[in-house]
Each structure stands twice: as C-alpha cells, then as structure tokens.
Amino acid sequence: MAGIKRLKVCINNEWVESSTSKYMPVMNPSLGVQIAEAPCCTQSEVDAAVNAAAAAFPAWSNTPIPQRIQLMFRFKALLDQHLDELTTLLATEMGKVLAEAKGDVLKAIEVVECACSSHYLMQGDTCMNVANGYDTVSFREPLGVFVGIAPYNFPAMIPMGWMLPFCITTGNTFVLKAASMVPQTSMRMLELLIEAGLPKGVVNLVTCSRVEADSLLVNPKVRGITFVGSTSVGLHIYSTAAGAGKRVQALCEAKNHALVMEDCVLERTVSGIINSTYGCAGQRCMALPVVCVQESIADEFVALLKKKAQELKLGAAYLPESQLGPLVSAAQKQSVENWIARGVEEGAKLVLDGRGVKVPGFEDGYFVGPTIFDHVKPEHAIGNDEVFGPVTCVKRVKSFEEGLAIMNGNRFANGSCIYTSSGYHAREFAKRTHGGMVGINVGIPVPFSIFPFTGHKDSFFGDLHAMGKDGVAFFTETKAVTSVWFTDEDARKAVSTWDGTLTRN
Question: Yes or no: is domain 10-22+35-252+459-479 CATH 3.40.605.10?
Fold first, then answer.
C-alpha cells in the first residue's frame, strides 16, 4: 500500500479524514495499479454534509445573485489556469486519453460560463392591472439542499458542470456524492472553488456506498436529487426520492443509433462514427455503438470502418500519442469482453475483435481494442443493450423507413443521428426519431450548455433536464405575488366592502 494516497472528504470547506475503516480503491487503469483510496463515509459523516449544506442555505440564498455569479467568474478563471493539471489528473484516474480528458474539463467550464447568466434565466414575469388596480409578478426562488450522485465516466463535466454551477448560482446549496472510482478530479475542482471564495457549507463532497447514498434520497433536509448512471439505479432513485416528495432528474443509459444512408459522404461519415464510438473507450451515454447502414453501401462502410478502427493507437491515457485509452476498471473490461462473447454466441458476425490486446509497457492496463460486429439483428442483445465499451454494431437496412423503425424500437432514446445529403430525409428524421438529442451529419449531438441535455424514454426519468433553461427551472420554484395599493379613503372602503375575490370591474 506504499504510495497510495488516502483521500479526504469536504464538509464546511474543511478537508477531513473519515473515521471509516472501509476504503474503496482508486486505480490508474492504464497501468492496472492502485493510486489512491476513497473513504466509504459513515452515515454520520454523510448526514453532517447535508447538515452543513442546510445550515449554509439561508445566508447563501439571501446573497445577491450578482455576488453568487461573481464566484463563478473567479472559479472559471482558476479552472482555465489549471486546465492542464486537471486534464492529466482526469486522464490518469479515469483512462480517457488527453484530448478527451481536456474536453471533459472544458465542457465543465462551458457550463460554469453559462451559469454566469443565471440572473437572466431566473427572471420572472409581470402583468400590470390583471384586475382593476391589481398587479401580479412572478419570480424564481431557490429550494434548499440538492444532492448530486455522479458517475465515473465524466469526472469533471457531470458533477462540476451539469450539477453544481446552476445549483449554486440559483441560490441552493449542494452535496456531491462523487464517484468512488474517480473522485480526485472533483476534489481538486472543489479546492479551486473554495480558493475562488466559496462560503462554508455551500458545497460539500463525500464518497460512500449505496447504503449511505440511499439515505440521501429520503433525508428530509434534501429538496432534490440530480443523478447520472444506469437505468436500474436511476429508476430506483427516481421512484424513491420522488416518493419522498423531492425533485429528481435521473439521466440514464443509452443505446444511440445512427442511420447511414447511401447518399452520405462516406469518408466523413465513417470518421465521425469512429470518433463517436471509440472516444472515451465507448464509456459515455452519447457514444454511437449502433449503426443502421443502407444495404447498398454496407460492405464498403464496414470495410472502411474496420480500416480506420485498426489505425487507432492504443496507449496509456496520459501519453500524447494515445488515441484509445483503457476502460476504467478490471470489472468493466471483463464486462465488455463478456458482451463481445455474447454477441458471437448470438450469431452476429465479428469483423474486428478487441479482446486480448496488450499495450507494450502497459500490459496490466484495462485495454479492449476496437470491436466491430456486422449483421446484427434486432433481436440480438449486443445491439440493444448498453455495453459501455469500444464496440460497434452494424445493422443492415433496406430503407430509411426500416432503419428508423429499428432505431425507434429501442427502449433507450438519449440521442440519434442520420448521415445523409438529403434535406428531406434529414427533416423527416429530426421530426420522427425518438432520440432526445438529434444529429444531422453529427455523431455526438450534445448541445451547447444553454440548451438542456434531453434524453427520452428509458434514458431519462424526471420532468426537467440538466442544463439550459430546464436546469434553472429544476433548481428553482416559482412564486407569484399579486398586489394592490390604496389611498387612505380607498383602504377604509375596502375594509367594509371587499369580499375576498378579484373582480374584472
């Protein structure tokens, strides 16, 4: 255990060592060695984080919104200054190659920038003279303590981008349950937020097991939960927390499909799919693991896809020349390899097998190479369920209608895209696809952060999505105020005549 860093948790801006006797390993997946250990916090420590956030809420919610936003400006400046440090840290503990790790941090910074416009997004409505002498105004208020339960695949963008900025700029306080496999990126970013002037208790961070996390779903001091992870856990969180009267947004699994038409620009299409499918080693809910290809070009498409996939350079995440890094853990590597074996058993044609690859100097890393299945049928689980690895499934279709029907038949609907030169097919696709985020010749149609991240069907549980106007609405509630003003004489008359109702007179 020599050289393994024991991580702390943050409560009231103080980094404290947990009293737990149970720690969870943090690995370097490129090497397959442990580099740190995250505490499985005790129940009392998790409760203390919530209590600190609850105690900080009255003063923070009463802090003028320009001051809350100034904190984000300072935070953004520090994130820019430490971009390279955060990139390397993220790549080391999660396994994304440097370009992808940098993109992860930059997407977090993007949401921080958008949250600096919260004063505009929180503006309410007014209507003068709704009745004779009566005016109504509405405005948005923060609710209280929110909890973020983060996944491992985007250690910067999701907890410190999607979850935190809009939450605190709108006046709420926050408890982050960081992913135990990759907590150091969020921890370092929270250190920078404290350096930027974060008041005590406004943001707190713990790592814990599912038992303690479940307590957050029913804690009476918690007003809302924002979650990203698997559909089974998301449904549990949604039903439990909503049943306890809390707001919930649960962003869950995906099996995004592309529809490749015979009139596409093939070279660019394949390059886009390579980036979409194998970026982050396929460990992202906006990956593109299934491609419905029109039969007339399917052979040419598969040959070019295989060629480009074989050209990807596998390597340690933190080496500049690496293009495909490892999976996050030995368990995830085994899971992906099991899925590949299942695809073979189901009868799909294995065109490229990524199992058993070895990277010189990193033989114990959790690497799986690019994998391609052709002739995947609608009934094959490999083409319907989330694998979360560098695996592409090709489904051959005769027409636009057949491809769209196959795509819409999937229970997930996070994103979908079409590659075509036809404006008609592009428009029909955008109108009729079930995907919540749609790409037209775009493989990863994640919108800029002023728009919400709009997964549909079993990819999302809740009413208000993350980011954009939805994000502000999720973290606030609307209050409407109706007022009337009298002269002294009018007031005396009103006491004796008002019947408690507004009239149109």
Answer: yes
Beginning with the edge strand found earlier in the chain, give each strand of the sheet holding 476-484 in spatial order: 126-131, 134-142, 476-484
208, 285, 292, 417: the active-site residue: 285
Instruction: For the chain, 505 residues long, give each residue's pLDDT as a single digit of tens.
Output: 458 999 999 999 999 999 999 999 999 999 999 999 999 999 999 999 999 999 999 999 999 999 999 999 999 999 999 999 999 999 999 999 999 999 999 999 999 999 999 989 999 999 999 999 999 999 999 999 999 999 999 999 999 999 999 999 999 999 999 999 999 999 999 999 999 999 999 999 999 999 999 999 999 999 999 999 999 999 999 999 999 999 999 999 999 999 999 999 999 999 999 999 999 999 999 999 999 999 999 999 999 999 999 999 999 999 999 999 999 999 999 999 999 999 999 999 999 999 999 999 999 999 999 999 999 999 999 999 999 999 999 999 999 999 999 999 999 999 999 999 999 999 999 999 999 999 999 999 999 999 999 999 999 999 999 999 999 999 999 999 999 998 877 766 765 555 556 554 4
Q: In what order do the strands lie in the sheet with 391-397?
A: 349-352, 371-374, 391-397, 290-294, 257-260, 415-419, 437-440
Give how far the C-alpha of residue 376 lies from the chain's centroid of Cα atoms, to the nearest Å: 29
Alpha-carbon distance of 145 to 55, in angstroms, equals: 9
- Whether 285 sits among the annotated catalytic residues: the reply is yes
Instruction: For the chain, report the end-to-end CA distance as a whole number of angstroms.
Output: 80
Written as one letter, the residue type at 424 is Y
Contact 123, 65 (CB under 8 A): no
The domain limits of the chain are 10-22+35-252+459-479, 257-440
C-alpha closest to that of 239 among 464, 477, 461: 461
Q: Structure pTM? A: 0.95
Question: The domain 257-440 is classified under which CATH number: 3.40.605.10, 3.40.309.10, 3.40.50.410, 3.20.20.80?
Answer: 3.40.309.10
Spatial neighbors of 98 by CB under 8 A, at least 6 apart, are 87, 88, 91, 317, 318, 319, 320, 322
